[in-house]
Amino acid sequence: MDALAVAIAAGLTIPRLTFRHVFRLSFHFGLFQFLMPVTGWLAGRAIERYIAPCDHWVVAGVLGFVGCRMLWEARNHAFDSRDDPTRGWMLVGLSIATSLDALAVGLSLALLRVSIWTPSLVIGIVAGILTMLGIRFGNSIGRRFGRVAAVCGGLVLLAIAGRVLVAHIT
Prior knowledge:
The chain is mainly α. The chain has one domain. The protein has helices at 2-13, 19-43, 45-51, 55-76, 88-111, 117-169. Helix 2 (19-43) runs parallel beside helix 5 (88-111), helix 2 packs across helix 6 and helix 4 crosses helix 6 (117-169). It is globular and about 50 Å long. The mean pLDDT is 82.
């Protein structure tokens, strides 16, 4: 669901959505959602103690940054094609941020001695499909409602970041 919300927000920021935008975001989100459980499963218990204390801070930080940036750009009507969320480090950061929970799933499945391949494949495919639908939906809303939709998208990302922090702090 985080990947879907981020995809909707990303769709809001892209003035002319192309197949390449949709493919890049869907492919990367799906790939990371597939790889993170596998990575968590392979790492097992050894890495859990290092990641668990800070994973929520990384997720909240990346989503909070992107959310604040969307609010700033909406305020200034400054959606810039250089800030394409389907390219570069922003794409990698969003892919990691939306898939860190899947790392914990992989760790859990390793402890349960469950095969990781089928669950990871399903997670990756579902995330890719939801991302594809989300970015298209966000873009259609953005074209109709522009600035208001961008503000809502930024607020949704900030809410997700806050939810991640509250869930891990309490």
